[in-house]
Amino acid sequence: MFQNDLKGLLAYSTISHLGLITLLLGLNSPLAAVAAVFHILNHATFKASLFMAAGIIDHESGTRDIRKLSGLVRLIPFTATLAMVASASMAGVPLLNGFLSKEMFFAETVFISATAWVEFALPLIATIAGTFSVAYALRFTVDVFFGPPATDLPHTPHEPPRWMRAPVELLVFTCLLVGIFPAQVVGSILAAAALPVVGGVLPEYSLTIWHGWNAPMIMSLVAMSGGVVLYLLLRKQLKRGRFKYPPVISYFNGKRGFERSLVVMMRGVRRIEKHISTKRLQTQLFLLVLVAVIGGMLPMLDSGLTWGDRPKIPGSVVFVTLWVLAIACALGAAWQAKYHRLAALTMVRCVRADDLRHLRVVLRATWR
């Protein structure tokens, strides 16, 4: 919502929708998996058209700064109409493809069977997410295409060449077709795409525009109304560029937190390094092997050492010979590491798995 760059707004909204898709896949429901695949298809359609529309705006006006753009609907009416339809699809407006997958998303959050707090919180969080999607979709359209014409643009915008706009037209037309005739246009494609994700028989679902007055429909109305109110409350401050960073959450800067944690970790590692560090190769190799052995033996403390369920494979002379040679090379490499580096390197090379495979072929041919 607080991005001032057109493509920045679209990029962060993509992260938002990918979070929605990830949540659907995490619900562990076949119908939620179908909804996730459906939203992947819908999101790819309207978001690709929006990115290309943003490219046209940048090309024609010379800027992507939302604070400088205004009133473009008078200068590029066809492009503006296409961008507004795609943005409405992103917001989940009825009769567009984004509305259908958003309704399936809302339905899955409402009818989930889980602990009490999840059943209460998940529909609420989904509605809040829908509210924000409406708000940033409105910012993309209202701030850019409506209002007084911008006067300080690097170029005077005009409609792009016909074939530059054609891909946007095709994608927006697809958004309309899927939104109005979903079963006829995308039904078979969705079934083919969702089947491997579900991993079995597809659940029953309905690709219809109207499912009656139910909880998902009410959630959609609340999200659209809340998004409009939220946008109107912040519109003037956003247009003036009052928010350099998003309020509240700007204090929780992920990049800054990651860098500080790296500094703290490196300081701790250096303190530990003073006590256990050594320049001797043998000691370093010993510590590495010791950590690997301890890591491999830890599970045995609980379950012990057993053969497991897999059938035992009878030993062979070739197999035993390979292991003996590998152990001998490893011990020899450790023994000669200090004084005969070339010999140690040669023996370490022999321990590698691919060389053992080559050696196995040679031994089998010799044995025969």
Mean pLDDT: 86
Number of strands: 0
Q: Order of helices and strands, N to C?
A: HHHHHHHHHHHHHH
Q: What separation lies between the terminal Cα atoms?
A: 73 Å
Integer tally of domains: 2
Shape: elongated
- The quaternary structure here is single chain
How many helical stretches? 14
Major sheet size, sense and barrel closure: none
Structural class: mainly alpha
What is the gyration radius calculated from CA atoms? Answer: 31 Å
Helicity level: over 70%
**Proportion of strand residues:** under 5%
In the predicted model, the low-confidence regions spanning at least 5 consecutive residues are: none
Brief summary of the model shown:
This protein is mostly helical and 368 residues long. It has helices spanning 6-26, 30-61, 77-91, 97-110, 116-145, 162-180, 182-198, 215-239, 254-276, 281-297, 300-303, 317-336, 341-351, 353-367. The protein folds into two domains: 6-246, no CATH class; 278-296 and 315-368, no CATH class.
Summary tags:
mainly alpha; 2 domains
Describe the protein's architecture and organization:
The structure is a single chain. This protein is 71% helix and 0% strand. The longest helix has 32 residues. It has 368 residues and is mainly α. It folds into 2 domains: 241 residues, no CATH class; 73 residues, no CATH class. The chain is elongated. 27% of the residues are buried. It starts with 5 loop residues before the first helix and ends with a helix. The chain is built from 14 helices and no strands.
